[in-house]
Amino acid sequence: MIVVENLHRHFGSFRAVDGASLHIKAGSITGLIGPNGAGKTTLFNVIAGRLPPTSGRVLMSGEDITGLPPHELFHKGVLRTFQIAHEFGSMTVRENLMMVPEGQTGETLWNTWFRRGAVAAEERRIRERADEVLEFLTIRHLADERAANISGGQKKLLELGRTMMVDAKIVFLDEVGAGVNRTLLNTIGDAIVRLNQERGYTFCVIEHDMDFIARLCNPVICMAEGRVLAEGTVDEVKNDERVIEAYLGTGLKNKVVANG
C-alpha cells in the first residue's frame, strides 16, 4: 500500500531521515520502533504531508503522493494521530467526532438559512455515526463530556475515533501508548485489532512499549539514525544484533551474549 523509496529529510546538516526505504502492506499492522532520535516521527510527518522531503518518494498503491498536503492525503484515506492528542477541549467528545467529516451541508450560510431540513438530516446522520464510533471504542458514556476533562488515554481513543468518522485506508499512530495506563492501552489495542480485522484498516504504529508491539504488529521495522535497520517478526527484530546494539543498548547486547 505505502512504499517509501530512499527518503531523506534534512534539517540543515542534520539528517533526520537519511535514505529510509520501507513497504507497508495493505491490511497489516506494521510496527515502527527505534531509539529516540531515530527519525520515526519525522518519517511519519513526511509521509503524512506535514513536512516536505529533501529527496525520495512516497507511493500509495502505485500513485506518487510525495509532498501532497495533509488535506489532500486526508481525502485519499491517509490519516495520522500524534504523540500529544489534539482535541478541541471546549467541545464535547461527540462534537469532536462530528466535526471531522469535511464539506458538511451546514458549513455554508446559504444552507443554514435555506436548506435547514437538509442540514438537520445530515447532522442526525453524523451524530448517529459518532455515537456508533463511541460505542465501538467503549467510551459512549463520555459522549457529552468536554474533551478537555477526559484522561490522556481517553483522548488517544478519541483521536482513533476521528479516523473512524471518514473512510480511512491507512492510519499512522504515533506513540499511541504514551502516558496511557495499561487498562486503556489494552482497550486501544483491542480497537486497533478490530478495525484491522473487521473494517480492513491498515496501520503503522510507532510505539516504545514492546509488549504492545508484540501483541499487535507483524511485521516490525526498526529504524536507527534515519535509516531502516531491520525488518521481520517482533522476535526476529528483537534478536537482531544490530537492533540490540542500536535500540536496546550495547550493554544489553553483551548481557544477552553472556547469558546465551
Could you give the order of the helices and strands?
Answer: EEEHEEHEHHHHEHEHEEHHH
Structural class: alpha/beta
Helix residue percentage: 40-55%
Strand order of the largest sheet: 6-7-8-3-9-10
Characterize the largest beta sheet: strand count, sense, and whether it forms a barrel. Answer: 6 strands, mixed
Looking at the structure, the CATH topology of the largest domain is: Rossmann fold
How confident is the prediction overall: mean pLDDT?
88
* Total of DSSP H or I helical runs spanning 4+ residues: 11
CATH architecture of the largest domain: 3-Layer(aba) Sandwich
Q: What is the CATH superfamily classification of the largest domain?
A: P-loop containing nucleotide triphosphate hydrolases
State the name of the first-level CATH class of the largest domain.
Alpha Beta
Verbal overview:
A hairpin with a 2-residue loop joins β9 (220-224) and β10 (227-232). The chain starts with a strand and ends with a helix. It has a six-stranded mixed beta sheet with strand order 6-7-8-3-9-10, with helices on both faces. Strands 2-1-4-5 form a four-stranded antiparallel beta sheet, with helices on one face. The model is unreliable at 250-260 (pLDDT under 50). The protein has helices at 40-47, 70-75, 93-98, 109-114, 116-136, 152-163, 182-199, 210-216, 234-238, 241-248, 250-259, and strands spanning 2-11, 14-24, 29-33, 55-60, 63-64, 78-80, 170-174, 202-206, 220-224, 227-232. It has two domains: 2-87 and 166-258, P-loop containing nucleotide triphosphate hydrolases (Rossmann fold, 3-Layer(aba) Sandwich), CATH 3.40.50; 89-147, no CATH class. The relative contact order is 0.17. The protein has eleven helices and ten strands. It has 260 residues and is of the alpha/beta class. The chain is 41% helix and 22% strand. The longest helix has 21 residues, at 116-136.
